[in-house]
Amino acid sequence: MSKACRVRLAIAACLVAAFAAHAGAEETLVWTEKASDGFVSLQYGSLDPAKAPPFLLSCFEAMGVAVLDVRQEIEGVTKGEPLTIVLSTGNAKAEIKGEAASDDASGKIFAEASDIAVKPVLEVLRQAGPLTITTGKSSASLTDQGRSDAVERFAKDCTLE
């Protein structure tokens, strides 16, 4: 094998290794729905259960309560401070009253809303297009890829209004 051929093979091997390392470093976030024993959840996040999802809508049917957690860090607020979580897709919009919560492990502040109405949230999530979440001065956009199916399963399993 010629020296030029060996160099090309070495470069190709390095590129493949670099691409594999980069691809492994990126985490895929997906929309999923889970249901068991009176608890239903709709989340956008990692499939790794050890990682808190950026978006989690929980339905506790036995207690008649729904909870929304938005785990994007919010600057300039303190734990317990009231805030509004705004969900929007296209022309659909829902404003949910919540409060700033704290992640005990990291100390980061995020948004949490308890005892919320599920129907307005689902109306926004059923629309096509990215979901924009705004809390305070923080904003994030979540893809709609796979959201429709997960939302419909959630709506079927969670009968709360």
In DSSP terms, counting alpha (H) and pi (I) runs of 4 or more, how many helices? 3
**CA-based shape:** globular
Task: Determine Rg (CA atoms, Å).
Answer: 20 Å
Strand content: 35-45%
Order of helices and strands: HEEEEEEEHEEH
Q: Give the strand order, joined by hyphens, for the main sheet.
A: 1-2-3-4-7-6-5-8-9
Instruction: Describe the main β-sheet briefly.
Output: 9 strands, antiparallel
CATH first level: Mainly Beta
Number of domains: 1
Point out poorly predicted stretches: 1-25
In short:
The chain has 161 residues and is α+β, with helices and mostly antiparallel strands.
What does it look like?
By secondary structure, this protein is an alpha+beta fold. The protein has one domain: Immunoglobulin-like (Sandwich), CATH 2.60.40. The protein has three helices and nine strands, in the order αβββββββαββα. It has helices at 3-25, 118-125, 147-157; strands at 30-36, 39-45, 55-60, 65-70, 82-89, 92-102, 109-114, 131-135, 138-142. The longest helix is centred in the first third of the chain and has 23 residues, at 3-25. The chain starts with a helix and ends with a helix. The model is unreliable at 1-25 (pLDDT under 50).
